[in-house]
Amino acid sequence: MRVGLVTQWYPPEPAFIPAGLAAALAARGHQVRTLTAFPNYPGGRIYPGYRQRWRSVETVDEVTVRRVPVYPSHDSSAVGRVANYLSYAATSSVAGWRFLAGLDVLYVYHPPPTAVAAALLPRLLRRVPVLLHAQDIWPESVTGSTMAPAGRAGRLLDRGLHAAMTRVYRSVDGIVALSDSMAELLVERGADPSAVRVVLNWTEEELFRPVPVTPAARAEVGYRGRPVVMFAGNLGAFQRIETAIRAAAAVPDIDLVLVGSGIEEDAARRLVAELDAANIRFLGRRPPQEMAELYAAADWQLICLRNLPALRGTVPSKLQAALACGRPVLASAPGDAARLVESAGVGFSCPPEDVVALASRFAQAAALPAGEWARMGARASRVYQDRMSLRVGVDQIEDMMAKLITQRRRR
Hints:
About 45% of the residues lie in helices and about 15% in strands. The protein has about 400 residues and is α/β, with parallel strands linked by helices. The strands form two sheets. It has an eight-stranded mixed beta sheet with strand order 3-4-2-1-5-6-7-8, sandwiched between helices. A six-stranded parallel beta sheet has the order 11-10-9-12-13-14, with helices on both faces. Helix 7 packs across helix 10 (about 290-295) and helix 11 packs across helix 14.
């Protein structure tokens, strides 16, 4: 197949889903082109070594990559974020007419949904089928954030984004959803049920894998002979890390280690000081290359999400990372993430934003016999390899692409 990938995010940015797909398809003999932006996420500044210009083409892992200029921004400014998304939609649409010519199928990575703009003209005039890979639900991912306006302006934004997303879902030929609940919601929002398939995300497998426990990593997490629960990721508005902090403060038999940063970090540190919780430690943001050893030094990985309708279909990437490392999971989350943990037997779950319930799960994890904990970790590795690995995901997306091409030729 001759495949075009349209994604605003691509390495060296932390965008392992589109990058992993592109490299895997190329390794299978397909011709792959990627249309992306100059790297600026998550700092909102162009990466060192890059200078924005119109004609920038390189070859990475046998993939031809063209970068287009954007307005770099990823701060709390709604205006800046909108300018960032719309600038990529505009420049990729102009460059895409030639760069994406002669292809059999186009793959669009969402978010943001504005990335689909570059694929619409080839679909309309050249009849190239478009496959959208939805990673979150709009408008809730916007209206539920701190950037969204309140009152009448907020309601108008919500209605406008709802209408725009319905048009997006109806304008593409296939949609990849990352969970069952997300697939159901996409159909409710206007997607054709026959066009939607659930494909669980994979993780960065060269980084997240089972590794031996090292004394240095144990020292790093502050191991002192009792179970360590680790939360690794963004300390943001959707995580509601306050729930985990209050629950851990009530269970002194475990240690909670927070790895990462975000807009809620300062408030989280103040809360720990206020509670005088000696069993909670902040490690800050760490390079991805260090994470496998840190995961190995912890006994449990924690998923913590707010109780929002849009998050019920979310399966956070930290779940795949934990399972790929062979670590059991505690999930204080709604919907599919919690169900997956329980049904696969890879950990325990509880309702989101419930301090008492999460404290009970912490105590249950602390009391689990070592043999059962090891068996749960082994199951975690098997579940990842059988259901979430890069190989399994690419198999399914490759199959969807082939079927879209066949359908186009029959029309």
